[in-house]
Structures are given as C-alpha cells and as structure tokens.
Amino acid sequence: MAMSHTSKNRLCNLPTGTVVTGKWHGRSYRLLRRLGSGANGVVYLAESGRTRVAVKLSDDYASLASEMNILRRFSKVQGAALGPSLLEADDWQSPFARETIPFYVMEYIEGENFASFIRRRGKEWAPVLVVQLLSVLERLHQEGWVFGDLKPDNLIITGPPPSVRLLDVGGTTMQGRAVKEFTELYDRGYWGLGSRKAEPSYDLFAAAMVMISSCCPGPIEKKGDGRAQLLAIIEADRFLAQYKDVLQKALDGRYQKAADMRRDLLAASSRQTSTKNERKAAPGRRSRRQAKRRGKARGIVETVVIAAALLGAYGLYIYWQLAM
Amino acid sequence: MRTGTLRQILLITDGCSNHGEDPAAMAALAREQGITVNVIGVLDKDAMDESGRREIEAIAAAGGGMSQVVYAKQLSQTVQMVTRQAMTQTLQGLVNRELKQILGSDVSLEDLPPDKRGQVMEVVDELGETVALDVLILIDTSGSMKTKLPTVKEALVDLSLSLNARMGENRFSVFIFPGKRAHAEKMIDWTPRIEELTAVFPKLASGGLTPTGPALREAIAYFDRKRSLRSWISGGDEPYIEESSL
Ligand SMILES: Nc1ncnc2c1ncn2[C@@H]1O[C@H](COP(=O)(O)OP(=O)(O)OP(=O)(O)O)[C@@H](O)[C@H]1O
Ligand SMILES: [Mg+2]
C-alpha cells in the first residue's frame, strides 16, 4: 500500500549519517545519500563496513516482501544478472517512529540514468542499449516472468563499457497474470494497444516506448488515437524513422519473443551505419568536440596572460621596494 | 483456503455530502457486511477544502478501505491502484486471520521474520490474481462533478482493463447519485464489461443535492439483494442472473 504522507516525508529525508540497524540480524548501515524514491519506498546509498550497498526502506511490509520474493528468484537464475542481488532483509526500530520500518539491502549498481546517458552520449546509443535490454528481457521471459514497469527510470547504465541493468522489480509479474505495476506512458493498455496481461509482448511494447521517449525531445502525452500519434512521432524524427518497422511491430504486439525484436533491431542498426543521416550527424559531433577543445586552448592562453601580468606586477612591486 | 467473492464499493466524489445520513456510518455498515468502501476525491484545480478531505478519509476508514484525493488528470492511475491495493489489503487481512489460526496467537505479517514474509505474500498474490471480485461504482454526479465525468469514464474503462487482465472473475456495476427516483440510480447492472458505460454517460444530468450517505445505503442493499438472489438460484458460483424489475 502506498505510504502515508508524513511517514513518507520522514523516510525520504533521513540525514546523511543516519545509522539503520536491523533488529533481527543486528547489522548496521550508515546512509550516505538518497538514490531515489517512488510510490513504494525510498532507496539510499549506504555503507556497511567498507562495502557500499543500496538500502530500500518502506512502511509497506507487503510490497517489500513481494519485491524480495522476486529478487530472490532472480538471484537463482544462472548466467545473467536480472536485477540487483538481494543481500539482506530486516526491520529498523527507528527513533522517530513508534513502529518498526522494514527494509532490504541490495547490491548498489553504480551508473547513470538511461535518459541522461542518451542525452549526453547521443541518440545512436538508444538502439545499442535497447538491444542489450532485449537480451536481458529474453532471459527474464524464459524464466516465466514479465518485467512490467519498464521505463527509463528503472534502467541504469553501468560500465564502462556501457551496459544496461534493470532496477525496481516492483512490477515484475508471473506470465499469465495481471501486470502488477506500470507507468502510463509505457503501458500498452493506456495507449489502447493491448491488455495488461503479463506476456512478453507487454514488455516489448514498453521497450519500443523507451526508445521512442529517449529520442524524442518533448514530453509525450496521449491525445486521441494513440497508435496514430505514436507512429507520427516516429516518422517526424529522422533518427527514429530508420527504426520504424521494428518499433511499429513492437507497438502492435507482433513480436512474441524479445530475441526476435533484438535481431530486427540489430539488423536495422547495422543498415544505418552508411546512411546520409549518420554521416551528417558525425561531423556535428566532431565540431562540438572541437569547439570544446578550442575553449580549452583559450583557457590556457588566459591563464598564461594572467600569470604574466601577476609576475609583472610582482616585479614592479619588488622594483618599487628596492627603489625606496 | 476459500475466500468467495471480494466485494467493494468505489465511491467517486468531489466534495461534501449535504443530505441524509452520515456517509461514514453507512460505510461502517457496509464493512460489517464484508463490503469494503474505497473513496476517491477528484479535484479540479484548487485544493479540496478541509471538510471534504476529512469526510473522504472518514468514509474510507469506517469502510475498511482506502482513500485518495487526486486531480482529474491522475484519475485513471489512481482508480486502478486504489482498487488493487484495497483488494490486497483485504486478502492480507484474510491471510493474517488464517495465520492466527495456524499459529494460535496474534501474529500478522509484521511479526514474522522478514525472510518468512515472502511466503505469506506469495499466497496473497496468488489469491489477488484468482479471487472473484465485485465492484460497485458509485459516482457523485452533483453539479460540480459535471466537467469531470469524461475523465471518470476513462478511469473506469482503464480499471476494467487492469482487472480483466487477472485470472479471476470480475463484475462491475455502476450507480450514480443523486438519482431521479431514488438516492442512487442504477446505470449498469452487474457485468464483466464496464465499457458499456460509454453509452450511458453522456445522458447523465447533474442535480443539486449530494446524498452520499443514503446513496451508500442503497448501494449496500443492492449487494445484498444480488447475493441472496444468487445463493437462492445456485450455490453462489453461477453467473448472476439479472432481476427483471428495478
Ligand atoms: N540497487 C540500486 N542501485 C542504484 N540505484 C538504485 C538501486 N535501487 C534503486 N535505485 C535508485 O532509486 C530509485 C528508486 O528506486 P525504486 O524504483 O526501487 O523505488 P520505487 O519506490 O519502487 O519507485 P517506483 O515509483 O519506480 O516504483 C531508482 O529509480 C534508482 O534511481
Ligand atoms: Mg522505480
């Protein structure tokens, strides 16, 4: 259940240095800073001895317990990291609340938010990262799950080399059931393009939306015919238009498997390398980099001038002292 | 474990009642009969006045359900969330009661060691997915709600999308208040498809009184009638056969 307002505010504003001690296992975690918060709780970066971990606190026992179930299941999957690994679960007898606050401790995944990574490094990273994402999804689907709440906020880019990891398993649902948690913009039901049954195609719709929203400058809001609107957005963007076939197929729910969408996206990406568009994009970036370098050179000149002026002034000062 | 059908009333309103019984008392009555009452307060632009907010919270508290005050824009997300969460809450209550019977003492989810809670939640999740659910939607159509009704309609269609993705059966029925002849007027009889609402909504006329309490009372009575009729006809699991008069 969603947290009540007061306790949520308190939990979201714990000062740095707060020590969270578990009453069952007795281990302590010193909070360093808040990593993020959402509908179901708040996540802090913390240290326990020398190791850095992420701690999720909530006043909702039920949703925390559900999330831990999924993290535990994920950790049993061989050969792929489907989410952060779960380290411990405990309750904290906090000084400010009469009740105890449940929390769990997980692996801290250091990295950058998906959207800001694309903004910083360029759109050409979007298909690369979505291809990676589709490998993870393929594995997750093979295990009988659907991620559910797939959106840029729940993806983190670690590295180097850059690679995608999933965060926040709150929406993860067994296939065949109703998707537990979702975000409107990435939900095919909201767009009138399918049900909320947990099936692989549900995630693949969201994967297409992740790519669209991260390449599209403005906020997207549904107006009228959702499908027509999304297709118009794709066509209006030079970069996205190159992936129109794959994206459209995913939006329409015509991919049954992540691996199929991955293959098509890869094929479309390698087809792009020699198009006019890319060549045009590249010089743009180079000139930006040059501009930066030029800026740096100007900085050096400025430093030299200032140093010379200071030296001159100092010389004058010495001269003046001696002359006295 | 057998749970039968979960029964909820979802009240959507934007302010204070001004006619008839205290709605919180009626909600308490519903709770006594195993019906959870959830309340969603819809805002336009300005904040809801304090007494409206207090009434909404009081109704939900008395009705054993959840309440939330939102702007019309967020309505869809909220309606489905509140309904799902109230369902989980009720099921958790049932599972907790079961636990108490097994363990003999006053034990709930919170008292279990963290590593054991997951097992309980698995049972709750499973039930939430498969249990049958009846939701009676009670919509305030008095004056100020008029502009919000298109959003309410959208939210309800969205709700059916979420609930119909479950494996369990759903039934919805829609009442509005104030009604023409009674305090609450039936718009849609029990149906798994709330989309039928689209046809009915544009015809809604808004009136002056806001008889929230009496409307709740009539909604409860409708649940009862339905149940007794169903158990009269069969063991209770047969699809509901509509009454000819009302
Ligand atoms: N293991 C982790 N390592 C690094 N950062 C994390 C980790 N877990 C969570 N975060 C950060 O904290 C934020 C909030 O966490 P999370 O999404 O789990 O909370 P939530 O309450 O479930 O939110 P939501 O509203 O998305 O459901 C994430 O978006 C992410 O930025
Ligand atoms: Mg999140």
UniProtKB/TrEMBL annotation, chain A:
Keywords in alphabetical order, please: ATP-binding, Membrane, Nucleotide-binding, Transmembrane, Transmembrane helix
Compositional bias per record (Basic residues), positions renumbered to this chain: 282-294
Q: Where is this region: Disordered?
A: 267-294
**Segments crossing the lipid bilayer:** 299-320
- Fetch the InterPro entries from UniProt: Atg1-like (IPR045269), Kinase-like_dom_sf (IPR011009), Prot_kinase_dom (IPR000719), Protein_kinase_ATP_BS (IPR017441)
Matching PROSITE patterns, A to Z? PROTEIN_KINASE_ATP, PROTEIN_KINASE_DOM
Q: Name one Pfam family in it.
A: Pkinase
Quote the Gene3D superfamilies the UniProt record gives: Transferase(Phosphotransferase) domain 1 (1.10.510.10)
Q: Where does ATP bind?
A: K56
Supply the PANTHER family for this chain.
SERINE/THREONINE-PROTEIN KINASE UNC-51-RELATED
Q: What is this protein called?
A: Phosphotransferase
Species for this entry: Geobacillus jurassicus
The root-end lineage is: Bacteria, Bacillati, Bacillota, Bacilli, Bacillales
